[in-house]
Specification:
Radius of gyration: 16 Å
Strand content: under 5%
Helix content: over 70%
Oligomer: single chain
Number of strands: 0
Largest sheet: none
Number of domains: 1
């Protein structure tokens, strides 16, 4: 499997986890749990951003290699 496909799968998994955490946050009345799930969703935002940044670099490198 290529690095690009691995990164795309990782982004999809992180987005799924973020959605799950958001759902859990909304479904609980426990304030400590709400805060935890909110924080975990925010962590996923950072992960998604990092993965997408790396994905952009990989895609740009592939374009550059095709041109040269």
């Amino acid at each position: 499997m290529t690095v690009q496909k691995d990164l795309q799968k990782a982004v999809a998994a992180a987005e799924s986890a973020k959605g799950t955490y958001a759902t859990f946050e909304q479904s609980t009345d426990d304030q400590t749990s709400k805060q935890m799930f909110t924080q975990m969703a925010q962590d996923m935002d950072r992960h998604i951003s990092q993965l997408n940044s790396r994905l952009e670099v990989v895609q740009q490198n592939q374009l550059n290699n095709q041109e040269g």
